[in-house]
Write a structure and sequence with these properties.
637 residues; 22 strands; 19 helices; 37% helix; Ribosomal Protein S5, domain 2; alpha+beta; Heat Shock Protein 90; 9-stranded mixed beta sheet; Rossmann fold
Length: 637
């Protein structure tokens, strides 16, 4: 066969520049595409052999990747199906390029956003080679016997021109040789290729060799004087992938230790073991396998994202799965693998894909079912894990209605004493004692046990129960629960005085009349910041604090939500000054003492001291005012 030269039959002359510039957003995936093609060719040959349609010797199907820095080439070599000359013309020159031309035509008529959506719909994996090369060669020999089965060499320099000739090649399979252009020299570094192979091909089903590694091998029959086996250093092929990852096995075939070891394989730099796992394995109405792990979720939940790796037939697709699975699932770690997820598409396309949506719903249901099972099977163990998984469950309940419907049966509320309750259990606990004047059930909660200690103590002395809602998402969760719980409201234990929150049948009479209250208000307001602190009077017990600082529940909650985003219409409230209520207990003896004191200076001194003590209890006394308060009290010792 003489060298055939020709033009690929396309009308779009600028097809290669468009492939080079726009086909993929990230040039590095060219290696993934070539390895995927080599894997596919190897797997298909194995299938033919199993069906008796290939009777030759399969031999070693390891895919070789080689870098020659001097020649500026990267070679990917397989021992798979290979191609005849006619097949090269058909699959490389005709089918792929007709798809490419169709791609270009559609690409040019779309907006930038639409362009991103259609990229990768045209089976152009091989042509990603031209993103990093100024010339590409293919040397291939078919597995078939007889007829036109000689090896051929195809070459193209990134234009519609190509050459095709017969060559001598001993073994079946295909070599793709990339002549790397000057703009992409980084891919001629061994560390870079190793990085890409580890990222994209870590779990492919056919062994992939890149370079060698030195290992210690025992020397047969040789021991040292202490009887220890002697070894020698030898070089062995370096296989970079695990061809049979744990998620491909049946759950019944894996042990707890297997799951722990696989987690370490996925996250070698993680020092904490996961709490538990879910093994996904379904073949209808879509194919899906995978393992999801529940990590210990830290306060900074943003740091937990992008730990789920998405695969298609063991080929890495992405680790950015927002929008592909429900947002709260991005806090999980692990692997999802489905052949129903196409490789070469943008994330925005995946988000709208029907199969992906079904997969997303299935995973959410499996996660909820697993949590329900763990709760039902061993509640004590579930409670011990609760603080580590609470943020994840809260996130799901806030963002996904279907998850909430399942989670309300196993989600827990924890009080300040460390006791756990289901929603139904806690309602039963407080329904007789904690109702407001409108007969709404009042869920008292604290955000910080230490900072709100005096308020918690005041509530518990009255026989009320206080929840601990100290999670980063609890402000959002409270809003959700208020919408879900019938005739109920949540109030932070320091948001108002307890007697104002909880309906009381009998209220202590005030020791001050209205005129005395007006006088007292004038005395107090000349000693405080009136713009920030608004004076209000309450008829409380004599043993209650003389002055208490509280904040409007709604405004404070919106500010808490705004700190982590999601304040809705209240976003931007952080620019407004915070305001507080200064609740004055008209029945406390110190208040009476102020009114009995005739010396205005002494009146101001008592008010100033109570004001500062109340702010100190709320961590609102800072800076110069705190320093002055300390100095004043030291001088009075």
């Amino acid at each position: 066969m003489t060298v055939q030269k020709g033009k690929i039959d396309i009308k779009t002359e600028d097809i290669f520049p468009i492939i080079k510039k726009f086909l993929y957003s990230d040039h590095e995936i060219f290696l993934r595409e070539l390895i995927s093609n080599a894997t596919d060719a190897s797997q298909k040959l194995k299938t033919l052999a199993s069906l008796g349609k290939f009777t030759g010797e399969l031999g070693d199907l390891t895919i070789l990747v080689e870098v020659d820095k001097k020649k500026k080439t990267i070679t990917v070599r397989d021992r798979g199906l290979g191609m005849t000359g006619d097949e090269v013309k058909k699959y490389i020159n005709q089918i792929a390029f007709s798809s490419a031309e169709d791609f270009v035509k559609k690409f040019k008529t779309k907006s930038e956003a639409e362009q991103n959506n259609i990229i990768g719909h045209f089976g152009l994996g091989f042509y990603s080679s031209f993103m990093v090369s100024d010339k590409v060669e293919i040397k291939t020999k078919t597995y078939k016997k007889g007829g036109q089965t000689k090896a051929v060499r195809w070459e193209c320099d990134g234009s519609p021109d190509f050459s095709l000739e017969e060559i001598e090649k001993d073994d079946r399979g295909t070599e793709v040789i990339l002549h790397i252009d000057d703009e992409n020299k980084e891919f001629l570094e061994n560390y870079k290729i190793n990085e890409l192979l580890t990222k994209y091909c870590k779990f492919l089903p056919v062994p992939i060799q890149f370079g060698t590694k030195k290992i210690q091998e025992p020397i047969e029959g040789k021991k040292d004087k202490d009887g220890n086996q002697e070894t020698k250093e030898v070089e062995k092929p370096k296989i970079i992938n695990n061809t049979n990852p744990l998620w491909k096995k049946k759950p019944s075939e894996a042990t707890d230790e297997d799951y722990k070891n696989f987690y370490r394989e996925l996250y070698p730099y993680s020092f904490e073991e996961p709490l538990f796992h879910i093994h996904l394995n379904v073949d209808y109405p879509f194919n899906l396998t995978g393992i999801l792990y529940f990590p210990k979720v830290k306060k900074d939940y943003e740091m937990q994202r992008n730990k789920i790796q998405l695969y298609s037939n063991q080929v890495f697709v992405t680790d950015s799965v927002e929008g592909i699975v429900p947002d709260f699932l991005t806090l999980l770690h692990g692997v999802i693998d489905s052949p129903d997820i196409p490789l070469n598409v943008s994330r925005s396309y995946l988000q709208s894909d029907g199969n992906v949506k079904k997969i997303s719903s299935y995973i959410m249901r499996k996660v909820a079912d697993k949590l329900a099972e763990l709760f039902k099977k061993d509640r004590e163990s579930f409670e011990k894990k609760w603080d580590d998984i609470k943020i994840f469950i809260a996130y799901g309940m806030i963002s996904e209605e279907k998850f909430y419907e399942k989670a309300e049966k196993f989600a827990l509320l924890k009080n300040v004493e460390g006791k756990y309750f289901t929603f139904a259990e806690y309602k039963k606990t407080i329904e007789k004692t904690q109702k407001d004047k409108d007969k709404k059930l009042v869920y008292l909660y604290a955000k910080n046990k230490d900072e709100q200690y005096s308020y918690i103590e005041s509530a518990t002395e009255r026989g009320y129960d206080v929840l601990l809602m100290d999670g980063v998402l609890d402000s959002h969760l409270i809003n959700t629960l208020e919408q879900k719980f019938k005739d109920s409201t949540f109030a932070r234990v320091d948001s108002n005085t307890i007697d104002k929150i909880i309906s009381k049948e009998d209220e202590a009479p005030s020791k001050l009349d209205d005129k005395q209250k007006e006088t007292l208000k004038e005395i107090i307001e000349r000693n405080i910041n009136k713009e920030t602190y608004h004076v209000a009077f309450e008829n409380l017990s004599e043993t209650d604090m003389p002055v208490t600082i509280t904040q409007n529940e709604f405004m404070r909650r919106m500010k808490d939500m705004e700190k982590i985003g999601g304040g809705g219409m209240m976003m931007g409230m952080g620019n407004f000054p915070e305001t507080f209520e200064m609740i004055v207990n008209t029945n406390n003896p110190l208040i009476t003492k102020i009114m009995d004191e005739e010396d205005a200076g002494k009146q101001d001194g008592i008010v100033k001291q109570m004001y500062d003590l109340a702010r100190l209890a709320k961590n609102l006394l800072v800076g110069k005012e705190l320093n002055d308060f300390v100095k004043r009290n030291v001088s009075n010792i």
